[in-house]
Design brief:
metal-binding; about 325 residues; hydrolase; globular; alpha/beta; 10 helices; 6 strands; His_deacetylse_dom_sf; His_deacetylse_dom; zinc; Arginase, Chain A
């Protein structure tokens, strides 16, 4: 994050610092959690808030320790609905699908602060859509932790609250019948975002991601949505190490679907783990290619209020330059 901020401070892009109150029970926090609850379970959000203190009080961890699950849910032949265990130690596995997303003493504050950026960013764009010329038509929210692996019921993939889903809920609080698009260009499939909107015909989800990569069990082309949402889920998997030319071909396919949908609001889940040297990626994408990806996206979806959310990206030395490349490409296509 510091690498991105350093690069942005040396650029001409406007930076707004969002500093929420630290009081957990204030009106700001309550409104944020209420909006998040549109797509996230109440008991799950309560778990995020309290589980560290429960483990600490029970002597399961020291103050500098972290909550990690031991046992996860699994299919049974009983037909009984799954229920959260009463035991706090066991409950960690009920609300998780992997071991990458521990919870420590300051985790909840970071989770809520990250989600707040998505909320505030979407709210700024609501102002733009309503004719407030002082508000931008594009906001880039530096969310950490990321969000697209969270399905509203479980942590995983470093994700605790699905920031894209929260942004959609924020937009819908003012424009409930809008057609919304989500373009997910993180290297990994956004299983959480797909799960949340899988049967929603008002949200078109398009994902370009590494084929047969994490989270392994989702992201196939035949996952097209369900019920009224059938046809509104578009997965475009791409082999690891694919060239920028192959990537752009997939991008064009996804952008065509989004353009045909006539969006009123766009969310971009932007991951820089697509970078050629990323330890958790990658495709053959270099710094200058992010400008091309951004420009092509904005040209195809010109003028639509757009919230860009930071997802993955782990080559710290190149992260700032990659972000600037993307933003410069986006800005050039916006006519700014």
């Amino acid at each position: 994050m510091l690498a991105i901020l350093k690069a942005l401070h040396l650029s001409k892009h406007e930076i707004r610092l969002i500093q929420p109150s630290t009081a957990e029970d204030n009106d700001w926090s309550k409104r944020l959690i209420e909006t998040t609850s549109d797509t996230h379970g109440h008991a799950y959000l309560q778990h995020l808030r309290t589980i560290y203190d429960e483990w600490l009080s029970a002597g399961l961890i020291e103050s500098d320790g972290h909550v990690l699950p031991e046992c996860f849910t699994f299919p049974t032949a009983t037909g009984k609905p799954l229920r959260a265990p009463k035991d706090a130690f066991a409950r960690a596995g009920y609300y998780a699908f992997d071991m990458s997303s521990g919870i420590m003493s300051q985790s909840y504050q970071a989770i809520v602060a990250s989600a707040n950026l998505a909320w505030e960013g979407a709210d700024m764009l609501v102002g733009f859509a309503s004719g407030q010329v002082t508000e931008p038509d594009t906001v880039f929210a530096l969310c950490r932790p990321p969000g697209h692996h969270c399905d509203g019921q479980r942590v995983g993939g470093y994700c605790y609250i699905n920031n894209a889903a929260l942004a959609v809920s924020t937009w819908r609080s003012t424009y409930p019948n809008s057609s919304i698009g989500i373009l997910d260009i993180d290297f990994h499939h956004g299983n959480g975002t797909q799960e949340i909107f899988y049967d929603d015909p008002k949200v078109l989800y398009v994902s370009i991601h590494g084929e047969d990569e994490y989270p392994y069990y989702t992201g196939a082309e035949d996952e097209i949505g369900a019920g009224k949402g059938e046809g509104f889920n578009v997965n475009l998997p791409l082999k690891v190490g694919s060239s920028i030319e192959n990537y752009l071909a997939k991008l064009d396919t996804g952008l065509k679907r989004l353009a045909e949908y006539k969006l009123e609001f766009l969310v971009v889940s932007l991951g820089f783990d697509t970078f050629h040297s990323d330890p958790l990626g990658s495709f053959q994408i270099h710094t200058e290619d992010y400008a091309t990806i951004a420009a092509r996206t904005r040209e195809s979806l010109y003028g639509i209020p757009a919230l860009i959310l930071l997802e993955g990206g782990y080559v710290i030395d190149s992260l700032g330059a990659n972000v600037l490349s993307f933003l410069d490409g986006w800005k050039s296509a916006s006519g700014a």
